[in-house]
Amino acid sequence: MDSPKHKGEGHRKRLRDKFLNSGLNGFHDYEIIELLLTLGTPRKDCKEQAKEAIEKFKSLRGVLEADIEELQEIKGIGSHNVFGIKLIKEVAKESLKERLSEKPLVTSSKDLFDYLYLSMRGLKMELFKVIFLNTKNRILEIEDLFKGTLNSSSVYPREIIQRSITLNAASLIFIHNHPSGDPQPSEKDREITRELVSAGNIMKIKILDHIIIGDNHYFSFADEGLVEEYNTNFFKKHQGK
């Protein structure tokens, strides 16, 4: 009978067989991370590193979203080890992006949060994204347009409208993050959203939502009725002009 070629090989095979037989049902978070670590290190036991990663980053999601440099602070995790973690994160992002592109987005603020949270949580500065949609509310493009603290001088409605015309977009959704973790909108966030709604109305481009990403929470201007309120105020102000 052949003996395991290295320490932990039998344990690793059992984990892989368990996954192939029943998916991730019954797996602890650290066992999922352990499997991912083994993709980059096929001949090394990764159990202790996986447990330490879960302890350090608190959850499976926390490990998936951790910076490569932070992961490598754990003894025994090197550049090859993090390969599986970063690979599965990017595959999950692309899969969800494809799923979002196949259906209307008018009522999908939670789906958008789930998708964007992976790429925006933990950013040290604010990032302003625009989702451009066609007449059927399907995604044309998702683009990063502005970085840094948001104010009226850093977000340019004219640039957004010009890009919308180039893409032949019929409607837009805006997303940005709050590095503080609190998604509640500032007065500047409200002011920018009002300006963008006004610009959209002038050019006959519908603004569907502005979503602010925080720490495991989000704020939706549409869900809170603010986009509708800004639209109403715009038409009242311009009535009869």
Automatic annotation (TrEMBL):
PROSITE patterns, sorted: MPN, UPF0758
Source organism superkingdom: Bacteria
UniProt entry keywords in alphabetical sequence: Hydrolase, Metal-binding, Metalloprotease, Protease, Zinc
Gene3D superfamilies, sorted: 5' to 3' exonuclease, C-terminal subdomain, Cytidine Deaminase, domain 2
Transmembrane segments: none
This protein's record includes keyword Aminoacyl-tRNA synthetase: no
Span of domain MPN: 105-227
Family: Belongs to the UPF0758 family.
Alphabetical list of PANTHER family matching this protein: DNA REPAIR PROTEIN RADC, UPF0758 PROTEIN YEES-RELATED
Protein name: MPN domain-containing protein
Source organism of the structure: Candidatus Schekmanbacteria bacterium GWA2_38_11
